[in-house]
Amino acid sequence: MMSKPNVAFICVHNSCRSQMAEAIGKIFASDVFESYSAGTETKPQINQDAVRLIKERYDVDMEATQHSKLLTDLPPIDIVIKMGCNVVCPYLPSQYVEDWSLEDPSGKSDEEFMVIIEQIEANVKKLAELIKNDKLKLF
User: Fold this and answer.
1) pTM, 2 dp
2) Which parts of the sequence belong to the Phosphotyrosine protein phosphatase I domain (predicted)?
3) Is residue 137 part of a domain?
């Protein structure tokens, strides 16, 4: 059995979408891949709406195990998932890259946040399936 690939969810600030993706990855795919998140800049704290809604939906406290990190803080990464930056997305060497093109829900309503959380959950599950079924052609 190949060791689990390292997946990095990246965006510029590593405070909202990428943090939620890291948390959701740990919840639904920890048997398939290791989840990390990072950005090219950090924020002093994770987006508080994201923290609250992830806690409500999954009973997971992101602030207990996660913090805003730079790309340079990560171990070697096999799979890069870009959250959808309208600006230039950070570059990280990897064997596979996917862009999820998610809207940034920061500052928006809980409903808009939940739409993004549900998209992330669906995408994480799909990614886990692809890896499990060896569809990504990782070396």
Assistant:
1) 0.94
2) 5-130
3) no
Helix (H) or strand (E) holding 97: strand 96-99
State which amino acid sits at residue 120. Answer: I
Strand partners, 39: 70
Helix orientation angle between 17-29 and 48-58, rounded to the nearest 10 degrees: 20
Domain that holds residue 77: 6-132
Q: How far apart are CA 27 and CA 119, in angstroms?
A: 15
CA 45 → CA 13, 14, 24, 49, 69, distances in Å?
A: 10, 10, 18, 11, 10
Tell me which H or E stretch contains 99: strand 96-99
- Overall domain count for the chain: 1
DSSP assignment of 39-88 equals BSS--SS--HHHHHHHHHHH---HHHH----BGGGS---SEEEE---SSP
